[in-house]
């Protein structure tokens, strides 16, 4: 069974089918969307079941003609890196549908966009062809833009435009890179192709690698995001509706990390190695800077957003430390950050729905009033700050221990971020969860 | 030495299982079963203690060289070159800790039943307490640095949860956060140490690391690792500069202070140094730092304790001070003495805290000793057991504290640390002073209670554990290791921590036989008897002075109203908390605020929005070009054509 295509197209098909649903029956729309997302999740589990661990390279590869004139093909494949990112996506979407159950404003369009977004994201992870990859990459932009701009909070238009321009700018540079790469590879290969596996066999001079690396880097650095091109993130995360924030933090940021691993590093290893110290420096600044800035945020959602800047810094550190352990840590960190930060956004979303405020100072005594919510909040916070035994720990630990051996200072600076994570998260938890004398 | 023979230890994981099980059961049903939660948790601890006891006898019954076992349960993770197993180690050192944790733990669980009765979150409390016992056992039974670190962090979590147990009190929530974050600073150091170990050894397994250490690493590396690990210990065991969290931690329920913040968790750092003694044996400077920090902390905390008015705060600073003693022991290579003091301190300090809890219970949580006095008539049992603990902590001859403190100081003296030994003697006098002040102001003299409280003695379930601990505090020391070098504990622990001071002191050794009770590597001229006499005189002397001063020779109440400079410095904890507050909270917040609202919002975003503005402006100008007048377009075309022509002409000419 072509699991990958089923996983990929089910959400889009579900979204298209939504067109025939009457607007007057929102319950039906929600139910159908949830059903679709669950089916996609089931397909992804099928993909997991037929995945062979311990086998290197792409598996379950599907390849069909697409645009023969350019040598572009419809090629899908999955390996150990993308496998769990796909499952993370299909796992989070049903949760997002549930979290958006009470959306009153045009639920049909909202759900349709969410499902289209799922197809686009899964496509990025599964694509084995550069042009296909690029189509999905830019395809994500449109639904996300509308999700933020139409269903977001007060400053949604500003946030949506900022997100759009930032991402588009990076994407266009990458597109130029893809074209140059395809033209370059056409010579030695004898034909024009966008097939990643074929292009990887072509020798690329170090000088060209540098330029191409930077072109790809622009797109991924913005997506991750790396300091100083991170400022779209707090705005987009804060203004997006809950489901949008969950998807943004849970999956969209990982596209940057995934892009580094799959494209930037694997296609241009020499350039990657050359630029690594600079990139790691930015990642380390992001870890410390994101944590410090998160500490003083008054808006709970903004705080979580900045925490993502810090946490994704570990991913970039793990990738560009170039040790096997740190790379595995980075892949793991992407998954665990998706779960824990997704969880945080859901919790903040719950609070907002009930109180119509996200300011920490407006809360207090949550632990006493809502003990179960408080307990879950605490667990997610602890996971996010990397407590051993919860999912945030292993990834961070592997990244740090893996990068310590080759680059001691990097790991030491990164470890400071682990202290700061405890500072901003526990402080926020304490202020929202215990009673305060002067608060309502 | 470490044989992979799991048969003897196959059942020993039950030690871990019982508290884990209790915690899981209580997590789901704790709040619903109300009164039953305490007994269930206590039962689990008792079972765990019984298993630990059986293990102890089985191990003790084996020949000395064959008492260490490792039991692998499964592989935690395998990533790159890092392979971590979940396994545990049963050896004399871990069993000693297991017995302390489960033994004292059981008594404190029992005590808590009475203490927490009626609290709306009783079930949650016992869940956390069981979880703590599990985590602490994980820490001491770990056979590799990572599992140890997991336990290390989990006990920190339990500490966080229990300090902030009454989270509706803001101060408690603040204290809990402070404890966790301060510990995180220590953990930072611990983790870097762990990375360094992994870099040099390629493994985190205790057995492999310790056995190959002498050949794999240099003294410098050993020192670095030792110092980094001690950084973690300084956090967990509240030593300078990271001790500030422990006094605030007293805002948690008192049995928690007894178990976590006196008897067990805070001693984890001492245990770690003993466990990783190889690094301190190889890197002598690290050991010296450990002993010196211990001495400085001991002195400072003792001085602060003199001027505290809250019964639990006095005990908290006392704990910090006593932990300093333990670090002097392990830092002088006298690992057995350090561990011995850990054990006796667990007895008498747990007892003192439970006694303080009983006082607070009687006085409805009013802990100011200047408002107490004469309580022995109202709560005689509490007063009696508290006095037993007092005897032990001032090291009255024959009590447990006497033997262990003596051996620690003897160890320091024997290792050539004469200054540290002298500080230890001074600290002994200070201990005698502040503990007597505490005892006298609380239980003796006239009642200064202005609130009209009618104190009542605590129930049997609270008094009984205190009596048992009282007995242990008095005779425990003599029974366990009354004989110093030849004591039971010394001979038991030797296979784990090695004969004392292996190569740690490159000093000439006087050939004295162990039978005389004198350490083999002794420096200095004073005999063991003289050392003991000096320390004991100091301790008892301090007590006598305090008794005289607070017993009537000195009008302390009037003096309080007009404190001198020294008193003010001491009662304000030497202003260390204020300096930290300024540096990390005020300055830190300023930096963070500047980053968030200046750098991020105006600089970086300013540039970003600047691009947008410039684009809009350029477009605004640019759109005027599009006038719709054909002649202006024609003019443009002409101008462009001329320029192109000029360009090609210029190229052709060159």
Give a written overview of the molecule.
The complex is a heterodimer of chains A (440) and B (654). Helix content of chain A is 75%, strand content 4%. Chain A has a two-stranded antiparallel ribbon with strand order 1-2. Chain A has 440 residues and is mainly alpha-helical. In chain A, helix 3 runs antiparallel to helix 4 (107-126), helix 3 (80-99) packs parallel to helix 13 (324-355) and helix 16 runs antiparallel to helix 17. With 654 residues, chain B is mainly α. Among the domains of chain B are: 299-352 and 364-503 and 521-571, no CATH class; 577-653. Chain B is 71% helix and 4% strand. A three-stranded mixed sheet of chain B has the order 1-2-3. In chain B, strand 2 (68-79) and strand 3 (82-90) form a beta hairpin. Chains A and B meet through helix 6, helix 11, helix 13, helix 16 and helix 17 of A and helix 5, helix 6 and helix 24 of B.
The total count of helices of chain A amounts to 17
Number of helices of chain B: 25
Taken as a percent bin, the fraction of beta residues of chain B is: under 5%
Q: Give the strand order of the largest sheet of chain A, numbering strands 1, 2, ... along the chain.
A: 1-2
Average pLDDT number of chain A = 89
Please report the total strand number of chain A as a whole number. 2
Number of extended strands of chain B = 3
Q: Helix and strand succession of chain B?
A: EHHEEHHHHHHHHHHHHHHHHHHHHHHH
Task: Describe, in short, the structure shown.
By secondary structure, chain A is mainly alpha-helical.
